[in-house]
Design goal:
Elements: H1 7-12, H2 14-17, H3 23-31, E1 34-38, H4 44-54, E2 58-62, H5 87-98, E3 103-107, H6 116-120, E4 125-128, H7 133-146, E5 150-156, E6 159-165, H8 173-176, H9 192-210, E7 219-224, E8 229-234
Parallel strand pairs: 1-2, 1-4, 2-3, 4-5
Antiparallel strand pairs: 5-6, 6-7, 7-8
Helix pairs in contact: 4-9
Length: 253
């Protein structure tokens, strides 16, 4: 499908279009892309805002929870007046005002093994904005099966991590975490940490969708906000991985 940029697009996104390796062609690629953000909490709120502001064509947001008072120190799309309402509706109201040219699809549903593939079908990329490993692993498995890039992000306190997963081109989340383990709940988190990690996830997303720059493929970026240390750790693909290992890959449509 041929995508063109309107005068509105050229003015609204003019500052990012000025980047030489992005340009108008990069903006066209964003405009025709469909991104799924799984979770619109601490990570998903700023990630969705940045994607919409950047001019992504279609954004699907998925979350089954309602807004709680304890969310408001970090979940920027939700305000006091939204307490008790579905997060996806709260998010949709602000996102649709932030950029009315973006198609936004809110889905209030809990991701599970029965529906995960249907929820992400047709997406060009999935952003992991979940707060539990079980759902992250489901998304990772579905993305590998369906050949959809997956941008992992996680936070704890003032620390966070980001890794880009491109099926069949590098390690998946299960290569990084062979065993499923959950930390203590509720876990501590400062507002700037998820906003920083989400910004890095969206930066990776824009580069991947527009086709420029170097990605965190096979690399885990660790951020320590308390010491202000940024560390990249190399992650190897595990041949015996139960998700992406050579004997375990089942590709879907």
């Amino acid at each position: 499908m041929d995508i063109s940029l309107t005068h509105y697009d050229l003015e609204r996104y003019s500052r990012q279009i000025l980047w030489p390796s992005f340009g108008e062609e990069g903006q066209k690629k964003l405009k025709k892309s469909h991104v799924v953000v799984a979770g619109v909490g601490g990570l998903g709120s700023p990630a969705s805002m940045l994607l919409v502001a950047a001019g992504i064509g279609r954004l699907t947001i998925i979350d089954s929870d309602n807004v709680e008072l304890s969310n408001l120190n970090r979940q920027l799309l939700h305000w006091d007046e939204n307490i008790g309402f579905p997060k996806v509706i709260s998010a949709y109201e602000k996102l649709s005002r932030l950029n009315p040219t973006v198609t936004i699809v809110p889905l209030q549903v809990r991701i599970n093994r029965d529906n995960v593939c249907d929820l992400i079908k047709g997406a060009d990329l999935v952003i992991d904005a979940m707060d539990n490993m079980a759902t992250r692993f489901l998304l990772n498995e579905a993305c590998v099966k369906m050949d959809i890039p997956f941008i992992h992000g996680g936070v704890f306190g003032l620390m966070g991590e980001v890794m880009t997963i491109i099926p069949h081109k590098g390690p998946c989340l299960k290569c990084l975490f062979p065993r499923e383990a959950e930390g203590p709940r509720p876990f501590p988190v400062f507002g700037p940490a998820p906003s920083l990690i989400a910004s890095l996830q969206v930066m990776e997303s824009i580069k991947l969708l527009a086709g420029f720059g170097e990605l965190l493929l096979g690399k885990l970026l660790l951020v320590n906000g308390e010491t202000m240390e940024f560390t990249i750790v190399k992650v190897e693909k595990r041949p015996d991985c139960e998700v992406c290992g050579d004997k375990n890959v089942e590709r879907g449509e």
